[in-house]
Amino acid sequence: MTSIRLAFSERLVLQNAMSELNRHQRQLRESLNTPPTEPAAGQVVADLSQLQEVDTAALAVLLQLDRESRQRFGQSLRIESAPPQLRALARLSSVDGLMQWQA
Fold first, then answer.
1. Which domain covers residue 62, as residue numbers?
2. pTM for this structure?
3. CATH number of the CATH domain containing 65
4. Domain count along the chain
5. Which residue among 16, 17, 41, 81 is least packed, with the fewest CB closer than 10 Å?
């Protein structure tokens, strides 16, 4: 299996957090069609390169997707191209160390 790339829109804030979460959960389910207990090869990547506006709801979405990635595929969600304001929110919220950040 190759990487599963979860591409995010320009905004990940309270107003659209549930729709973004639902969209990416559906993508995870459809990507592999493997039982949750069966580990998958490859990586689950959250591509945040288009993200421009965030609030703390973005952290909640990413933490939930990380939890589902660990449960379903046995590996952490890799977060790529996170905007500086999201990294700052993660540090302020003391969840920075719970996530796998990539440049």
1. 4-102
2. 0.89
3. 3.30.750.24
4. 1
5. 41
